[in-house]
Amino acid sequence: MKATQLLHNLGQSIWLDNITRDLLDSGTLGRYIQDLSVTGLTSNPTIFDHAIKNSAAYDAALREKLSRGKSGEALFFDLALQDLTRAAELFQPIHEQTDGVDGWVSLEVSPLLAHDTASTLAAAKDLYARAGQSNLFIKIPGTKEGLPAIEEAIFAGIPINVTLLFSREQYVAAAEAFLRGIERRIEAGLKPVVGSVASVFISRWDAAVAAKAPEALRNQLGIAIANRTYKAYRELLDSPRWQRVSNAGARPQRLLWASTGTKDPKASDVLYVKALAAPFTVNTMPEGTLKALADHGELGTILPADGGDCERVLAEFAQAGVDIDSLAARLQDEGAKSFVQSWDELMAVIASKSAILKKTAAQ
């Protein structure tokens, strides 16, 4: 039995951190669902930038959108919604079988809105309405300005993937925003079932400290942060506050491990998958990591609910001069800026391809 199936059987959802039209047209995504236990999918501006830049698969759709006067952001979201609608349909049987727990796809609001609460909420409402898919998450970053938008979106019944979380504290803030939205729905007499995941980024921690971490601590920081966050997740699920809303019919916001591709060429290519196995969580993997897990991966022990030895490991990093709190803030800020850069590159690619296609059509 493949390690992907074993991980699925353990109770962790395997999602693919990729979307391209080629994946859809070739049937590859369907095969991943059938053969590799993939039950969901995530996307971000960087993924779409690479997809459109490196493929001619979007050219026909670009021509059609251009003929209707579309350009820039509006054109991109049309293309993205086409891809994600098709992916959502592939995952719909899983979504129905799990009664909405699994089978989700994700679309991010413009990263230019990361620090604009009102515009983020408006974009989330618009994209979710346009998609018309019950199993589409709208991704909103868990920044200071994003948190109120997350609460309001949940209250409005919009499924949310909270992205760009890097620490226990950032996760707890996002979980509380979700919980406030659910509590407000209960108070208003609304159905309290609104899907959500909280995405905690892992490998970027180790990449950030690779030059200063002692060899004995190499590639251990991200896993220690994950253990600390998982402990907070389990404590929240056991709390009287959560149990009250659960008794009213609410569903938990699941914890999702993101950025789980190994950045260190000397480390195992399934390092973060093996270390982060835990039931009732999600691991969204790059395509290469998914294939490696299916080919030669093996599972380790399940994440301990009490965080294991994470505090000892984090104390050793502190002794080595790593300020965890300031680094978490920096990583979130850098992540937001990175997505803005990818967004700008994506808009430039669309403009460039549009110009070429218009010129070709005029000849």
Give a verbal description of the structure.
The chain is built from 16 helices and eight strands. It is of the alpha/beta class and 363 residues long. Strands 2-1-8-7-6-5-4-3 form an eight-stranded parallel beta sheet. Helix 8 (146-155) packs parallel to helix 9. 47% of the residues are buried.
Quick gist of this model?
This protein is α/β, with parallel strands linked by helices and 363 residues long. The chain has 16 helices and eight strands. 57% of the residues lie in helices and 11% in strands.
What are the SSEs and their pairings?
Blueprint lengths: L2 H8 L1 E5 L4 H5 L2 H8 L2 E4 L3 H9 L5 H9 L4 H26 L7 E4 L8 H15 L4 E6 L4 H10 L4 E6 L2 H20 L8 E6 L1 H7 L11 H17 L2 H8 L6 E5 L12 H5 L5 E5 L1 H10 L13 H10 L4 H39 L1
Parallel strand pairs: 1-2, 1-8, 3-4, 4-5, 5-6, 6-7, 7-8
Helix pairs in contact: 4-16, 5-16, 7-8, 8-9, 9-11, 10-11, 11-15
Poorly predicted tracts of residues: none
How big is the Rg? 20 Å
Task: Characterize the biggest β-sheet.
Answer: 8 strands, parallel
Cα shape? globular
Q: Would you count the extended β strands for me? A: 8
Mean pLDDT, nearest integer? 95
Provide the β-strand percentage band. 5-15%
Structural class, from helix and strand content? Answer: alpha/beta
* Helical fraction: 55-70%
Taking strands numbered 1, 2, ... along the chain, how are they ordered across the largest sheet? 2-1-8-7-6-5-4-3
What is the H-and-E element order?
HEHHEHHHEHEHEHEHHHEHEHHH
Determine the N-to-C terminus distance: 56 Å
Number of helices: 16
